[in-house]
Amino acid sequence: MITKMTDDYGRGGYGGAPQPAGQPQVPLCPRHPDRMAFVRCQRCERPTCQECQRPAPVGIQCADCVAQAQAAAPRVRQAARQAGRPVITFTLIGICVAVFVMNGALGGYLNSTFAYRPSLGESEPWLFLTAAFLHSGWPHLLMNMFALFLLGSALEPALKGWRYIALYLLAALGGSVAVLVFADAADPYSWSWPVVGASGAVFGLFGAYFVVLRRIGADTTGVLVLLGINLAYGFLVPMISWQAHVGGLLVGAILALAYTHRPHRRGVPQPSRTSLAVPATVIMTVALVAITVLRYSLV
């Protein structure tokens, strides 16, 4: 008599050859049915023998999932090439550069008027976003625009249109909100110090890029190292707003989880066609506004 086996390699199946009834079910490797496999792949959850195991950033993956992820990477690059130039990213860079040049021509008027200060945010709420298009000098501008170009060129084809714009702007808003949350209202220096720069939005793109790479099963070690260096830079170097970096990073990562969500699909993540994208954007906006109102109510 032969025990009933599943017809695929789903969560309950062991794969391999049928086993006699009455004997304990031993997990077998689907690719090598004659070998026991007590380790499961972190992606598909199939049992995998030692020969088929591949180390991953977290746990073990099977050879089939690794091959699928490697095949997905060229499709991501091909999709980016087919999408053409990242128009939204170039537009954001153009706005920041134009504002910087205009600010210089006006003797720093824009920075003094539209920089974000926790002390002014309640009466002038537009400062939460205008600060993201201002920069304190050429090195500051060039560093942020270079990061925006690299990350935006990869993310814009994946997120597309309004999702990409919403993630960028909400990450910038999240950076300003984080500055407010950590500011000390009793300290005039902390409460009134002007904050400018696209760093919060750029860190939001960092968080989103990490999520996208995880979705396709790509190696995220390099991104984590680069992200760690940039976060440490904000904590160690004076006059850098680490609060904006952390706030933007969290907002970008959370939104990317919703924007790239597609149940029961592996490979290249695409913008979610489910009802998650719009509600996630609304909920994040409401949450940031609520945190801001609550913070000012406690002053």
Automatic annotation (TrEMBL):
Q: Where in the cell is it found?
A: Membrane
Designated name of the protein:
Membrane associated rhomboid family serine protease
Where do transmembrane segments lie in this chain? 87-106, 126-152, 164-185, 191-213, 220-236, 276-298
GO BP: any one term: proteolysis
Q: Where is this region: Disordered?
A: 1-24
Q: Pfam families from the entry? A: Rhomboid
> One cellular component GO annotation, for this chain's record?
membrane
Question: InterPro entries given for it?
Answer: Peptidase_S54_rhomboid_dom, Rhomboid-like_sf, Rhomboid_protease_S54
**Peptidase S54 rhomboid domain: which residues?**
123-259
Q: Cross-referenced PANTHER family, in alphabetical order?
A: PRESENILIN-ASSOCIATED RHOMBOID-LIKE PROTEIN, MITOCHONDRIAL (PTHR43731:SF14), RHOMBOID PROTEASE (PTHR43731)
**Assigned keywords, A-Z:** Hydrolase, Membrane, Protease, Transmembrane, Transmembrane helix
Membrane topology note: Multi-pass membrane protein
Locate the compositionally biased regions of type Basic and acidic residues. Answer: 1-10
GO MF annotation terms: serine-type endopeptidase activity
Return the similarity comment. Belongs to the peptidase S54 family.
